[in-house]
Write a structure and sequence with these properties.
- The chain has 429 residues and is of the alpha/beta class.
- The chain folds into 2 domains: 202 residues, UDP-n-acetylglucosamine1-carboxyvinyl-transferase, Chain (Alpha-beta prism), CATH 3.65.10.10; 212 residues, Enolpyruvate transferase domain (UDP-n-acetylglucosamine1-carboxyvinyl-transferase, Chain, Alpha-beta prism), CATH 3.65.10.
- It is built from 12 helices and 25 strands.
- The longest helix is centred in the middle third of the chain and has 14 residues.
- The protein binds shikimate-3-phosphate (S3P) and phosphoenolpyruvate.
- Shikimate-3-phosphate binds next to helix 1, helix 3 and helix 5.
């Protein structure tokens, strides 16, 4: 189903002085999604403290409800999941969420009855076939178009035998996570072997393994590209959702660009998200990242250098890093991110087009961007219905007057309050 909300043009605010702010940002999309799925197949109720309420996670909750799980989201700070017998007929609208499209099919296979899947037009273009083929090889009955993408119908029998499966997950780490998350409920668990070019977004697969273990699953990930999940009942539990590190990226970028300081409140001492990677990247660009009792702080030092880095592990950070690159004092090479051509939009093509239109020199290769900064001018920054393109446009707008996003409403995918939070940070009001 297409997005219901109207497109909202937005003038990106320009920072008149260094941005000094303390921000409270929404919970991690990735942790919220996993906590919902694991809670749905646990024994007994679970709670999610400080979950992300946004389009992607509402879609996940809606899909689970359709299959018979009770998900109460009335309290913003505490969602309650009560597992029920998974059953069809049910329909899962995945919206634009890769997580919903790839985490829910194996859950639907565990349901008794037919579960249909569809989403926004753009999600039909995103890679799904390796997961469909993997589930088929495990005996699940699935109808899709010849492309192996949405719309899809899964005829669940109430159980999945499980066992060994080979998958090429080079297009998206979510293809692996989607098999692992449901596997404790497969009769024989699962042994997943990846065969193909490297799996991107390794920290997200580690998060899957970590959260499965926290819920009581036996998981062996000691061999590269091989994951073993033992069958067994998961226990309901309380999940505490961390603030979203990728969602925090544009806010941290504001500190670097303006020579200011931005502190993200509520950051935990030990995190399931790739904060060390973030520290190394921002450090190379001239920033300073510190973890204190009040949270995670990024300080701009007044210089902004270009970045030459392999971002395959943190591909979703590319749009904001590209925006920083266009404003830096030296060229950037953002490498290893061919897979983000299959994100909400072809992000390499979209970034090239938009930053070039503003005056930067950007060259695209199949899996990288080469950005040579030049003086930028204002203009319309197209967002392609992609929240992270909107973040990139907002970041450029801090330094370049007259940037207008053609649509800021797409940020509702992961942060419905983005425009207000952003303006409050920039203006201090
Ligand atoms: O598992 C997850 O929660 C995610 C994995 C990554 O997907 P890809 O591996 O497709 O990049 C990431 O980009 C996405 O935003 C969230
Ligand atoms: C790639 C992303 O999302 P999805 O979960 O839809 O894959 C993203 O949020 O950058």
């Amino acid at each position: 189903m297409a997005r219901q909300t109207a497109h909202v043009p937005w003038n990106a605010p320009t920072a008149a002085e260094p941005v000094t702010a303390t921000v409270q940002l929404p919970g991690s999309k990735s942790m919220t999604a996993r906590a919902l799925v694991l809670s749905a197949i646990g024994v007994g109720p679970s709670t999610l403290a400080r979950p992300l309420r946004a389009r992607d996670t509402e879609m996940m909750a809606g899909g689970l409800r359709a299959m018979g799980v009770s998900v109460s989201t009335v309290d913003d700070d505490r969602w309650v999941v009560r597992p029920g017998t998974l059953q069809g007929p049910a329909h899962v609208d995945v919206g634009q969420a890769g997580t919903v499209m790839r985490f829910m099919p194996a859950i639907a296979a565990l349901a008794q009855g037919t579960v249909t899947f569809d989403g926004d037009p753009s999600v039909r273009q995103r890679p799904l076939r390796p997961l469909v083929d993997a589930l088929r090889s495990l005996g699940v009955s699935i109808d899709t178009p010849p492309t192996g993408s949405l719309p899809m119908t899964i005829r669940g029998t109430g159980r999945v035998t499980g066992g060994e499966v080979v998958i090429d997950a080079s297009a998206s780490s979510q293809l692996v996570s989607g098999l692992l998350l449901a596997a404790p409920d497969f009769d024989r668990g699962v042994v997943v072997r990846h065969d193909g070019p490297p799996v991107p977004s390794a920290p997200h697969v580690r998060m899957t393994v970590q959260m499965l273990r926290a819920a009581g699953a036996g998981v062996d990930d000691s061999v590269r590209d091989l994951w073993v999940v033992e069958p067994g009942k998961l226990t309901g539990r309380g999940w505490t959702i961390e603030p979203d590190l990728s969602g925090a990226m544009p806010f941290f970028a504001a500190a670097l660009i303006t020579g200011g300081t931005v502190t993200l409140l509520g950051w935990p001492r030990s995190s399931a998200q790739p904060v060390d990677r973030l520290r190394a990247l921002l450090d190379e660009m001239g920033g300073e990242v510190t973890l204190g009792t009040d949270g995670l702080t990024v300080r701009g030092t007044g210089v902004l250098h270009g970045l030459d880095a392999d971002l395959s592990e943190v591909g979703e950070m590319t749009p904001v890093l590209a925006a920083l690159g266009a404003l830096a004092d030296s060229p950037s090479r953002l490498r290893g991110v061919g897979h983000i051509r299959g994100h909400e939009t072809d992000r390499l093509a979209a970034l090239t087009r938009e930053l070039t239109a503003l005056g930067a020199a950007v060259a695209e290769t199949p899996d990288s961007l080469e950005i040579t900064p030049r003086p930028l001018r204002g203009g319309v920054f197209h967002t392609y219905d992609d929240h992270r393109m909107a973040h990139a446009g907002a970041v450029v707008g801090l330094a370049v007057p007259g940037i207008e996003l053609d649509d800021v409403a797409c940020t509702s995918k992961t942060m419905p309050d983005f425009p207000a939070l952003w303006s409050a940070m920039v203006t201090g009001k």
